[in-house]
């Protein structure tokens, strides 16, 4: 359990810290000097069972700051610390009376009083976090969501559960209450891969996410925001395909993501600028797909391919190519004979082997985008014929297919490169030139070089 104390007088920290060490040794006390620092702690270091605000804060009114905290941390008790006069003058009644368990710890400290107030707050936190939240559901009532999804939001409208046993689930994120990325990281550290929503709520969540993203894409012109929304889209699209299938709303979202790529690329003008606006490069399937959308767009321009149909095909292939992969680490693998594949479970190996065919299968439901299935099913073929599933070489693959394969492989290598040097784009390109300068790969390879060099 963690406690947060916001106080701009460092001398006070030691006193309180000693009290916690002596009476609540299992509580980790984190002290913040500035309010901005406290808000950062709440967002990234939480959850905090206890929040204490010093009533003598100078840089900000402690009551205003208390309200700000409730906006970030949700409804919860607060403890105000100070002498009687300062607390009376600076803590507004409506804030103090806003929660039954709000309390004051008066200075100078009285040990028994301190213990009683902290214990009450601690009981609230324990009850809130654990005891009230364990519920029984049939497994068929619950739908798993990859942990990755939860980094995309700060709060969601539904309760989120972690699986304890096949029928017992603990609520770990309450509906409409803000949660921190640190909370999600803690589950990742415990090797928890999925959190659960109740089935009907899960479907509503996906549909509402699609509406939100569509709305966002329609109304923003900011390149960075567009890219962020596109990354979010890919996560939702893959999740939707695996659990629901293809619907009209999903097809609309896919179309919008592709159209917005062309529009956004026209405004940023070069692939280097796309990278400059990219929020982060994170070895992630969704980010790989979005980079592929832009690199294909850019290479089409270098090849003077202006056809809408061609862009749609490359766009859908970029979006769907790895939709059948649930283990993000498989993005680092390109071939079935890659020795690193042996480190994965049998289930992961099977998933990797089948993912081009599964994604190609999804593409057949997108009837507005003809003949994309072969592009997707070939995305792990290699110029020398050592790829999979059909060991096709550079002369058996079409120029369009070679263009897509080249972009996909190049980006996978780029995002998986451990050393991020300034010349990485060129370095990876020169490595690629040795293997891909053959047959129908030659033309797209020249276009890729032109794309990477383009600076205006
Ligand atoms: Fe793949």
Helices and strands in order, then pairings?
Layout: E1 2-6, H1 10-23, E2 28-32, H2 35-44, E3 50-54, H3 62-73, E4 79-82, H4 84-90, H5 93-96, E5 103-106, H6 111-129, E6 134-136, E7 142-146, E8 160-163, E9 168-173, H7 181-189, E10 194-198, H8 199-219, H9 223-243, H10 248-268, H11 271-277, H12 285-302, H13 308-320, H14 346-363, H15 373-377, H16 399-416, H17 424-436, H18 442-453
Parallel strand pairs: 1-2, 1-3, 3-4, 4-5
Antiparallel strand pairs: 6-9, 7-10, 8-9
Bound molecules: fe (ii) ion (FE2).
Fe (ii) ion is lined by residues 321-322, 355, 379-380.
What is the radius of gyration?
27 Å
- In percent terms, what proportion of residues is strand? 5-15%
Strand order in the sheet with the most strands: 2-1-3-4-5
Number of helical segments with 4 or more residues:
18
Task: Report the count of strand segments.
Answer: 10
Helical percentage? 40-55%
Describe the protein.
With 456 residues, the protein is α/β, with parallel strands linked by helices. The protein contains 18 helices and ten strands. The mean pLDDT is 89. The site of fe (ii) ion (FE2) has 5 residues, from loops. The site of fe (ii) ion has 5 residues, from loops.
């Amino acid at each position: 359990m963690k406690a947060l104390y916001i106080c701009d007088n460092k001398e006070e920290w030691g006193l309180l810290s000693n009290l916690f060490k002596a009476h609540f040794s299992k509580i980790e006390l984190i002290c913040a000097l500035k309010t901005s620092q406290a808000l950062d702690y709440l967002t990234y270091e939480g959850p905090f069972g206890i929040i204490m605000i010093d009533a003598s804060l100078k840089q900000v009114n402690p009551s205003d700051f208390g309200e700000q905290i409730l906006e970030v941390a949700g409804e919860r008790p607060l403890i105000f610390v100070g002498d009687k006069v300062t607390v009376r003058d600076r803590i507004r009644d409506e804030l103090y009376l806003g929660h039954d368990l709000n309390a004051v710890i008066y200075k100078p400290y009285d040990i028994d009083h301190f213990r009683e107030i902290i214990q009450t707050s601690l009981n609230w936190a324990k009850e809130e976090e654990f005891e009230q939240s364990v519920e029984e559901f049939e497994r068929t009532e619950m739908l798993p969501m990859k942990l990755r999804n939860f980094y995309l939001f700060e709060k969601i409208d539904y309760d989120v559960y972690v699986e304890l046993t096949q029928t017992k689930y603990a609520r770990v994120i309450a509906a409409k209450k803000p949660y921190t990325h640190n909370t999600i990281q803690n589950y990742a550290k415990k090797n928890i891969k999925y959190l659960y929503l109740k089935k009907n709520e899960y479907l509503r969540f996906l549909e509402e996410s699609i509406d939100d993203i569509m709305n966002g894409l329609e109304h923003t012109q900011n390149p960075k925001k567009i890219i962020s929304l596109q990354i979010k889209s890919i996560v939702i699209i893959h999740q939707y395909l695996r659990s629901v299938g293809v619907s009209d709303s999903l097809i609309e979202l896919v179309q919008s993501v592709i159209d917005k790529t062309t529009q956004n690329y026209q405004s940023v003008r070069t692939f280097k600028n796309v990278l400059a606006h990219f929020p982060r490069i994170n070895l992630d399937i969704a980010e790989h797909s979005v980079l592929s959308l832009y690199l294909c767009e850019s290479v089409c321009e270098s090849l003077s391919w202006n056809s809408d149909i061609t862009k749609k095909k490359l766009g859908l292939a970029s979006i769907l190519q790895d939709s059948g992969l649930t283990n993000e680490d498989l993005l680092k693998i390109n071939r079935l004979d890659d020795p690193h594949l042996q480190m994965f479970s049998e289930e992961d190996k099977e998933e990797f082997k089948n993912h081009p065919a599964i994604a190609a299968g999804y593409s057949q439901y997108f009837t507005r985008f003809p003949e994309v299935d072969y592009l997707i099913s070939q995305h792990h073929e290699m110029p020398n014929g050592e790829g999979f599933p059909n060991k096709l070489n550079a002369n058996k693959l079409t120029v369009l297919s070679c263009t897509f394969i080249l972009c996909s492989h190049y980006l996978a290598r780029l995002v998986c490169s451990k050393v991020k040097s300034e010349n990485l784009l060129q370095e990876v390109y020169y490595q690629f030139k040795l293997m891909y300068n053959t047959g129908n790969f030659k033309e797209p390879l020249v276009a890729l070089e032109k794309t990477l060099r383009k600076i205006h």
